Amino acid sequence: MSAVAKADWSLKQRGPEEYAPRDRGPAIHSENQPSNEIAERMAVMAGQAAGASLDQIDHVARELEKMRDMMRSEAERIGQLIENYGRLSNGTIAAMKIISENLKPFQRPE
Predict the structure, then answer these.
(1) Which pLDDT band, with edges at 50, 70 and 90, does 82 fall under?
(2) Are 26 and 32 in contact (CB under 8 A)?
(3) Closest to 95 (Cα-Cα) out of 87, 105, 83, 84
(4) For residues 92 and 88, what is the distance between their CA atoms, to the nearest angstrom?
(5) CA-to-CA distance for 67 and 61, rounded, in angstroms?
(6) For a pLDDT cut of 70, what percent of the chain falls above it?
(7) Which of 3, 14, 21, 23 is most enclosed, with most CB atoms within 10 A?
């Protein structure tokens, strides 16, 4: 068996930055950032969350407006159908009266 030389880890007092890629910056922690930058980030995050909620509310409002317009047009259509039915019914009654009046001379006496 051959002896494997081990690195003497106890002599090396290096941190993780030695092993991390050079282009990677330090992790963002609250102690590394000024408080106003944290507040700005929080405001941006809150704005994004509120924006998504407002978008959903706008979508629902548009859908409700479409439904309102559809209901109005259906109400107009049904109103016109009822009006037409009323005219047809009145016309039918008038026609039956005329026919009845014209048939009276041909009735047999009882």
Answers:
(1) very high
(2) yes
(3) 87
(4) 6
(5) 10
(6) 68
(7) 14
Dig out the tokens for 57 from the structure: 């509310």
pTM: 0.46
What lies within 8 Å, CB to CB, of 38 at 6+ separation is 30
pLDDT of residue 86: 97
Do the beta carbons of residue 38 and residue 30 sit within 8 Å? yes
Number of CB atoms found within 10 A of residue 95's CB: 10
Closest to 52 (Cα-Cα) out of 41, 42, 44? 44
| 109 burial via Cβ count (<10 Å: 0-12, 13-18, 19+) | exposed
User: Considering Cα of 7, then 8, then 14, then 15, what sign does the dihedral take?
Assistant: positive
